[in-house]
Predict the structure.
Amino acid sequence: MKVYADNAATTPMSKTAINEMLYHVENTYGNPSSLHAAGQQAAMALLKARQTIAEYLGCEPKEIIFTSGGSEADNQAIISAAKLGERKKKKHIISTAFEHHAVLHTLKRLEKEGFEVTYLDVHENGLISAEQVEKAIRPDTCLVTIMYANNEIGTIQPIGEIGAICKEKKVLFHTDAVQAAGHLHINVREQNIDLMSISAHKFHGPKGVGALYARKGVILTNLIEGGAQERGKRAGTENIPAIMSMAAAFKEACDNIDENAEKVLKMRNRLIDGLSEIPHSILNGDREKRLAGNFSMCFEGIEGESMLLYLDMEGVCASSGSACTSGSLDPSHVLLAIGRPHEIAHGSLRLSLSEYNTDEEIDHILKAVPEVVNRLRNMSPVWRDLKEGRKEYVIQ
Amino acid sequence: MLYSEKVMDHFRNPRNVGIIENADGVGEVGNAKCGDIMKIYLKIEEDVITDVKFETFGCGSAIASSSMATEMIMGKPVSEALTLSNKAVAEALDGLPPVKMHCSVLAEEAVKVAVRDYYDKNGIEYDASLFPNCESCDHCSL
């Protein structure tokens, strides 16, 4: 049996998104900047996509900038806010230690340019509070950037409360909503969000396309110079088929948010309940305030990559930490941020579900994971030391 | 990162997994914080390795490297096992990704530390500089 349980890395495209993409690949070939009929047809399609996304985010169409994905949107949002702050001699930014690297590495770059960044503690449950943000805001703070939902452990931050504080303190607020968009109800006006990043391939849309919401009045800095596309803020001929497909996928996801979440939550809870029975295992992140599809657990005495490869042999596509960090030897920065010791953080498993998964697939995972954990523990010298009492268990 | 078919074969079906009770030499190298620990058990009769087992906590290439190293020293004289290099282990596996080369280093070192343990237990003299020490591993920043 093949089970795809790595939807936080990327999702399969929906039929709606595929059909929309194919239609526009064939029919909407004009350049939206051209004045002739073919161009104007493309410009109309683009406008429609912008309207759809704006409608579901609760903003104006002109506040949406199409990008190559979540990373570009994160980069542009943060760099723009930093440039605006610098003009007013405000060079302090507030974030957390468990952001996506698209945010963290952009912040590191700004630190080299003289910005100061406060990384808020995300605690063992993977949650920050609005009070923490409020306390950290200083007169020279120009930006608060906090992810909506974490990509590894799925914890959901109190975005509305943080937005209200940022509004009151007149500090720009950016949220990386790549894992949340299409899965949680978002309204940028009600939640006082100034800048937000989304990515199509996390909600059954295509890869290589995303969007940056920038509230009217927040002046963006260009990352790509050239033509006047995207209100002059992002040059390059628009990828019409991908953008149209993203809009269709987003509409479909948002129209079915509650129904999908209910279905996914039931399956996910079966995973948590079933796999918690493996001795010396621990759930990462708050059990309640997390994305419906996210499961993340550490198993003592084994290492994550070998767990993934054995699970792959059983037909289960999973991940350890996030896909983006798999090329590195260090354990997940997210798991270290919630206080897991190195040797425990190495033994993590993330399963991320979508509404395409089935109960039979969950049955298969519930059978495969304990077998793989046992197999690896039986060849682990660490496990033997724990079992025979030469070392103390970290996870009880 | 892509593993060779050889690596995957040794990972899927690791050879010589387990322990040897009352082994003549045992070597454990690595650190759980770095994500890899290898332990090699040797049975030695008249200076020949008559049995070898391993236990590994680590990634796919760590398991494959240990498995391959045990195959390469099985039945060999101790002096020959000491010449096993990490390069030879990696080559026998049809190569390892650059970021995983340290796994083959651990395999070489685990064998050497097990042999040193055998020498120590039997009062056999040896040149200490031929054996690894903790500082020789620099693959993690811990």
